[in-house]
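Homework-ish question, so no full write-ups if that breaks the rules, but can someone show me the predicted structure for this set?
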Amino acid sequence: MTPVVELSKVRKVYPGPGASGGHVALEDVTFEVARGEFVCVVGPSGAGKSTLLRCLTGLAAPTSGEARFGGEALRSVPAAVGVVFQDYGRSLYPWLTVSRNIELPLKVRGVPRAERSGRTADVLASVGLADAGRKYPWQLSGGMQQRVAIARALVYRPDLLVMDEPFASVDAQTRFGLEDLVLRVRAEFGVTVVFVTHDIDEAVYLADRVVVLSRPPGTVSEVVDISLPGPRDQIATKRMEEFARHREHLLGLVMTR
Amino acid sequence: MRLRAALVRYGSRLLVLVAALGLWQGLSAAGIISGDEFPSMTATARALGDQAGSAALWTAVGQTLAGWGAGLLIGGAAAVALGTLIGLNRFAYRSSIGVIEFFKTIPVVAILPIALVLWGVTLNMKIALVTFAVFWPLVIQVCYGVRSLDPVARDTAAALGVTGPRKFAVVTLPSAAPFIATGLRVSVAVALIVDIVAELIGGGSGLGTRILVAENAGPSQYPAMYAYIVVAGILGVLLAGVFAVAERRLLHWHSAQRADTVAPEPAAVVPVAS
Amino acid sequence: MPRSLSLTGRILTRLWLPVVLAAAWWVSSAGSTSLYFPPLSKILAAVWTQWAAGPARAQLASSLEHLVTGYALACLLGVGFGALLWSLRHVRDATSPYVYFLYVLPAPVLVPAAMTLFGLGFSMKVVLIAFAAMWPVLLNTLDGMRGVDPVALDTARALGVPPARRVLSVVLRAASPQIAAGLRNSLQVAIILMVVSEWVASTDGIGYYIVNSQESFDYTGMWSGIIVLAIIGTVANLAFVAAENRILHWHYGARAVEGAR
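A: Not a homework solution, just the prediction itself:
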């Protein structure tokens, strides 16, 4: 079976002064994500996590190497990819209501009006915001806004959902709720997820596999299979010995290299 | 308490108005200012009342508004179209911004003789002049607005597949709207000033000409002149007011966002580092 | 992103369009026999012979005299009254609708009135320019002062800075970016009124020169006047930018830091 998305020998250099012709963000990154998998990407700050995400979604082209989605080389963001950015305040359009934000990708894809409103209502209910459709994003709390952003990325039923440190700007309690929400919608929509984070606990809790990036220039230093049973639970799962073991191992990887 | 504060505020404003009008009338009645130079308050008020019922005033107001509105519309549309094209292309922006800044600094009155030569004393002359005056400051604002599109907002558009004309209408234009509104607020006032200049010295029909004609007719018409001046001021207030209301309605999301929500921690969006 | 554009590249990008436009005007008007659109070469020659070295120098001097005197008065009155209204809250409240009315009143309508009051001479123009250009400065001063950070004022009070010094060194300074914006708006108003007043009612000044040339079918002269006005506008703007950069460098510095965060 072909992987949903794969990077092979991806190198990304941002032009500028310097011996290597600029800032090398990624060096020889290779990994693939199978259908239905939940993969987290962790790494120390400056490891090129965001760059990796940009290459993975087609927002940016690698300097060399190749990023493929469904076997085809990425040139732009494919219609079957959903992206959730960290900065929901800027990613949700403040001049559109919550519903219109969510309907926007459906309009682009030519979904008829009647179906649009039905799907919007459904996806809002899935993220627990059934009544928020007529509000503006900035009238909601941070956690609710990020749920809207997730709903917008899910509404067109993408094969792959890519999330860039989506919960870095919300408080801890909200964060746990959102993590469980992501696990639930993943099961509900059967979507493959790539989740970039700097939080080891979050990665272990969510992922089937964790890709660890090294210190810059970023390269894959290890891929760790997470052998925790599902469904996961904030208290029970995190109390498991295995959780602690994965956590320790990953922390070691991120801290030392 | 609130009611009392409002009463004090509006009462004191009314008092100032009454005192000023009273002083004006008193100075005229005492002969300190002569009617040959400055009409009495009552005479001016009477002239204003007479004109409010006359077709001449409303025709003049209509003529002034025609130049103002058409010029604002043409200049505004051209500025949005061209400003967008220039703002979207870095080479075009760098090439033309100096030229635009230069044209912006040219006093509009300098263009008046050219407009007169080209169009004569016509409505088109007024429109051309207002268009010129509105276009340059506005096109700069549109360029800035289009260029200021947030990188996250842009990436989001790419991720959702929003491209082409839809991207312009749904993403680029709304995000530039606050900048455009700032430019328009200035343009609304400038357009009226330039329109009236075109009437005063270019001879195009409207309030400006009326004022000049009243002045030329001598002291008997001075009350009418001042009445026209008051009308021009009221027109200025109304146009600015209408614009403010429109702005509040269309950009409610913008001011509300600034007032009610705390901006999230700015993230490192620059793609140089992760 | 290609940031590698060299300095020469940047200069060339900025220069090519103005050069092309000027050249296009020069070439397209070179053989012009139209009365209204004389060749650019002739216009530039007229700018030199009339304005730089010739009889129109007196008109230029007279215009600048009106402008500078009137504008200086407008600035002083605007900042002065603005500060006064800022300190007298009740007066500010009671007069605000009328101040706003005078601010939005399209100032050129006052030209005929000023003629009946002050005749056609120097004082009419100066009074007119000062009166009309005062309001943008006044309102911006007031607004800027109202926006002063209370912490800055409290700090000054805690440091024992006397009231007069507080107004000068804290309030005025903190409000200066907005005052500068007002001064810039006022300058535009002042230039417009300078030309309009000279045009309608005068025997001297650039406005008079332009209308006189036009009426005597000397369109080259008219165009030269237009060029001189454009030069005045540009020079005034450049002077403004230079002054702002010097005086308000702290403001732009702070803003750049904020923007980079």
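Now go work out the reasoning yourself. Hint: Strands of chain A lie at 5-15, 22-33, 38-42, 64-69, 72-73, 81-84, 160-164, 192-196, 209-213, 220-225.
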